[in-house]
Amino acid sequence: MIERLSVHDVAVPLRRPFRTAAGVLTTRRTILVGLGVGDVVGWGEAAPYSGAAIGDADAAWEALTARRPERVPIARAAWSEAEADLAARVVGRSLRAEIGADPGPVVASLAVGLEDPVADVDAAVALGYTAVKLKIAPGSDLEVVSAIRRRHPGLAVGVDANGAYRPGRLEPPSALAEYVAYLEQPYPPGCEEAAAMLRRRGFRVALDESVTSPTTARRLLEGGWADLLVVKPGRLGWDGALDVARAAADAGVGIRASGLVETGIGRAFVAALGALPHAGISDVACADHLLAVDPVRPACRLVDGRIEVADGPGIGVEPFLDDVEVIRSVEVAVR
Asked: Which of the following CATH numbers is that of domain 4-92+318-333: 3.30.390.10, 3.40.630.30, 3.40.50.620, 3.40.50.970?
């Protein structure tokens, strides 16, 4: 039984604008929710994202403070994360151990936007990343990716179009396939069969925006339309993310754990999923390599291209809001 509810609406500037085919992000507004029992608190994060029908920050705030998270997808996702974190903390186990994920650090991969990708990849490599996911769009694809591969031939590179191409009308360049480990969401949701046809041109296809629920994920798996499913706890909720991850494992399909440009709270759930045995190189990165500051403790550390997944209890990190703008907060007893 939940005894206390904490909700914090915070705004964190990004280190540099993060541009994708769906829009540009300069400040991250996100909602952190804590569920408490006794002196133990579990945390989750509701992170709205442009172009994704998952709810905005104000709607998430209203749903969470009213204790009706089911009204807004990202609020429901954050609540389920907080419940999972709380349950693991109560028994003194890490979230990673609770789901049977591998011990030890995971390979990190930093998402790189469209704003200045060559310079941003140079910076990522200087930080110690050995893998990146590049956002691409028509007119900013083959030339950019090939230039980056020439500069960093040992770097693992995936690309994400966020549905920017169109089957038969605006296609990703075939030559791109030789440079990338995977092509994520080439076409909008609803074009999955066409996306699967890109395999004939040498692409390994990952689907992200098409994975809106465990039900849609199973449809994709049954159709054999993806080589990888992108699993986002911030969209699916922790329970939904685990459901999709297990369905993919049963189907012999790999996953890529990913987030929504979250703080270290949301990123901790991504890291735990990314430690599952059938997870490929996932979008596991230190949040403060995209955000100006990551409002959690302890701080994330990147060592030899890998990030240590917290040993817990729970997700192993706590909010630390002294250095960020707190728009509003509420802490109430739940009866």
From this structure: 3.30.390.10
